[in-house]
Amino acid sequence: MSTQKEIISSKDLDNCITALGYSISNYCKHEGGGIVFVCVMKGGFMFFSDLIKKINYPIEVDFIKCSSYDGFEQKELSIHYDIEADVTDKTVFIVDDILDTGGTMNVLIKHFKKLGAKQVETVSAVYKENLDFPDHFFIYKQPVNVDPWYIGYGMDGPKGYSRNKDTIYTL
Q: How far is 77 from 68, CA to CA, in rounded Å?
């Protein structure tokens, strides 16, 4: 097994989620109107579950299942299960485990706008800085000039394992 390095403790992760939930709640209160949080399955499920409990604003919740990786290899995004919520004239928060190249988020933003979303915001546990997403909500920002593989807290390794770890690690 590869060496794993914890990048954030469970306690610090919880504190960051609480702070992020507070920021997003304030954003929702400022924007008003209908808000839909969409979990990108499978990777986003743990972060999503913890985050929505910290949102102090009435929200709808839905799920989309898509994939853009096969092991370590990136491929074209495929949507396997779409949302059921009506997002017409609502703000959609896409919640995923990681934002790296932005490919998944870009496809999903277009998808939700095509479905009539008024506005689409992006949220992830790990953020690999991407100039296409300057206002992205996140917990952990990857340092510049490193590109590790992240596991745990919903993120899997190349063979599909390690999603159940209670915090985020690098391989």
A: 5
Burial of residue 2 (number of CB atoms within 10 Å: 0-12, 13-18, 19+): exposed
DSSP code per residue over 95-120: EEEEESSSHHHHHHHHHHHHTT-SEE
**Which of 50, 96, 97, 100 is labelled catalytic?**
100
What is the model's pLDDT at position 8? 94
* Strand residues in the chain grouped as ranges (E): 5-6, 35-41, 60-70, 73-81, 91-99, 119-127, 137-141, 150-151, 169-170
Would you state the pLDDT for residue 78? 84
Task: Starting at the earlier edge strand, list the strands of the sheet with 5-6.
Answer: 5-6, 169-170, 150-151
Does the annotation mark 96 as catalytic? no
In the chain, % of residues over pLDDT 90: 70
